From TrEMBL:
Protein family: Belongs to the glycosyl hydrolase 9 (cellulase E) family.
Annotated GO MF terms: cellulase activity
E.C. code: 3.2.1.4
Record's signal peptide: 1-27
InterPro entries in UniProt: 6-hairpin_glycosidase_sf (IPR008928), 6hp_glycosidase-like_sf (IPR012341), Glyco_hydro_9 (IPR001701), Glyco_hydro_9_Asp/Glu_AS (IPR033126), Glyco_hydro_9_His_AS (IPR018221)
Active site: 414, 465, 474
Gene Ontology biological-process annotations: cellulose catabolic process
Name used for this protein in its record: Endoglucanase
Gene3D superfamilies, per database record: 1.50.10.10
Catalytic activity reported: Endohydrolysis of (1->4)-beta-D-glucosidic linkages in cellulose, lichenin and cereal beta-D-glucans
Pfam family, one: Glyco_hydro_9
Record keywords: Carbohydrate metabolism, Cellulose degradation, Glycosidase, Hydrolase, Polysaccharide degradation, Signal
Domain Glycoside hydrolase family residue range list: 33-487
Organism: Rosa chinensis (China rose)
């Protein structure tokens, strides 16, 4: 007869095994993930430009940028500030929108209590992008404000008095990258609103097609057309080819129009289909495109799409420790590490791809092929979960990198509106230079930018909660956007269907 100690050990091992096999083994509960999901969407309200609605929940913010575009006789009021500044950059805003929409498309069913807020976050951007795309024929407005002037000030958006210059791409000065990303955003959003607002969805898709045609017909990088206005801030380092394939892929998914399928088949090889790429960001869409198009291969087994499944497998295998083609870098605490500046953007975007690909694999009962071994959807989910949990506080510093979540989170966020007293607490104007007293202050930000995910720790898991260290302490919309989908998945605590 087994001793009590032996029985206890067996019981513990059995419990541990069951725990590891389930998604319930976690530093966080489904309620924690739900709370983080709520906050991750709320963050976007802090980034809003334009006239705030009556149901604005982050109420330390006020109206801003109310005359954007007026000096150019166009209406460009609305949209999002990308990060801690007051510029409306078109490329990251469009990418943010695409990934927010993708989060809703794949995991919207897992966020029933937040789906309307998530849709509102998408729509705040698409309303603006529609104006940017349809105001002037043959033109796409891609930026509001001179970033060099904006970055020389530290002032809340409600007070800003720096030039609100408007920048555009056109048939003479092309920007295929920003235009094709805008097309992707509009197309993805059209899927989000297809059932709830068919008329709006149709307008989004129609505009996406028009903007994509413009991007494809007048090829060129917006970095070449707009130079120092977009570089080095959001320079298109990867070129525009990846966005063309990404845009066409989203329009195909939204429209089921065979002409876009033909476009992908005919142009894929010259637009990056043959490339193995191990990063997914506002600049480089190749890995995301492979995962998106792998769905078509898994569901139809069309030979032309086999390459996208193969490259998606390569991408996934590079992330999985122990895989024959593992090449990713992780911190000692287990965080995916890509860059010293705003590293968490790569973590959240990768996490969305892991979970989305796991969903596609699971739906079609297949696995990832890594050399001679197979990696299951469950392994991808477990890897994604490690990254999500790390961001939320399961890390060596026991620091949540989401503002307002958990007991310990960044207090000195590199964000103008958050760090300067709000217009409600300090109605008098705070000028460009006067704001720097708050930038240099050692006090915590007076306005909590709830839900903001900052740039994150370095490659040794070290984090400086310092407003001056923008590489680690600045939030951005494109960090949060893919995390919305990841949190929705784990808040439901079930395998994807």
């Amino acid at each position: 007869m087994a001793s009590a100690a032996t029985f206890s050990l067996v019981t513990q091992l059995l419990c541990l095994t069951l725990c590891l096999l389930s998604l319930g083994c976690s530093a966080f509960t489904t309620e924690d993930y739900s709370d983080a999901l709520d906050k991750s969407i709320l963050f976007f309200e802090g980034q809003r430009s334009g006239k705030l609605p009556s149901n604005q929940r982050l109420n330390w913010r006020g109206n801003s940028g109310m005359s954007d575009g007026s000096s150019y006789h166009v209406d460009l009021v609305g949209g999002y500030y990308d990060a801690g500044d007051n510029v409306k950059f078109g490329l990251p805003m469009a990418f943010t929108t695409t990934l927010l929409a993708w989060s809703v498309i794949e995991f919207g069913s897992s966020m029933p209590n937040q789906i309307e807020n998530a849709k509102a976050a998408v729509r705040w951007s698409t309303d603006y992008l529609l104006k940017a795309a349809t105001t002037t024929p043959g033109t796409l407005y891609v930026q509001v404000a001179d970033p060099n002037m904006d970055h020389s000030c530290w002032e809340r958006p409600e007070d800003m008095d720096t030039p609100r210059n408007v920048y555009k791409v056109s048939t003479q000065n092309p920007g295929s990258d920003v235009a094709a990303e805008t097309a992707a955003a509009l197309a993805a959003a059209s899927i989000v609103f297809k059932d709830s607002d068919p008329s709006y969805s149709g307008k989004l898709l129609h505009t996406a097609m028009e903007v994509f045609d413009f991007a494809d017909k007048y090829r060129g990088s917006y970095s070449d057309s707009l130079g120092s206005v977009v570089c080095p801030f959001y320079c298109s380092y990867s070129g525009y080819q990846d966005e063309l394939l990404w845009g066409a892929s989203w329009i195909h998914r939204a429209s089921k129009n065979s002409s876009y399928l033909s476009y992908i088949k005919s142009n894929g090889h010259t637009l990056g289909a043959d490339d193995d790429d191990y990063s997914f960001s506002w600049d480089d869409k190749r890995a995301g495109t492979k995962v998106l198009l792998s769905k078509s291969f898994l569901e139809t087994n069309t030979e032309e799409f086999q390459i996208y499944k193969a490259h998606s497998d390569n991408y996934i295998c590079s992330l999985i420790p122990g895989s024959s083609s593992f090449q990713a870098q992780y911190t000692p605490g287990g965080l995916l590490y890509k860059a010293s500046e705003s590293n968490l953007q790569y973590v959240t975007s990768t996490t969305l791809l892991l979970l989305t690909y796991a969903k596609y694999l699971s739906s079609n009962r297949v696995a990832v092929t890594c050399g001679s071994s197979a990696v299951t959807a469950e392994t991808l989910i477990a890897q994604a979960k490690k990254q999500v949990d790390y961001i939320l506080g399961d890390n060596p510093a026991k620091m949540s990198y989401m503002v307002g979540f958990g007991k310990k989170y960044p207090q000195h966020v590199h964000h103008r509106g958050s760090s300067v007293p709000s217009v409600h607490e300090h109605p008098g104007r705070i000028s460009c230079n006067d704001g720097f007293q708050y930038f240099h202050s050692g006090s915590p930000n007076p306005n909590v930018l709830v839900g903001a995910i900052v740039g994150g720790p370095d490659n040794k898991d070290n984090f400086a909660d310092d407003r001056n260290n923008y590489q680690q302490s600045e939030p951005a919309t494109y960090i949060n956007a893919p995390f919305v989908g990841a949190l929705a998945f784990f808040s439901a605590n079930t395998n994807p269907k």
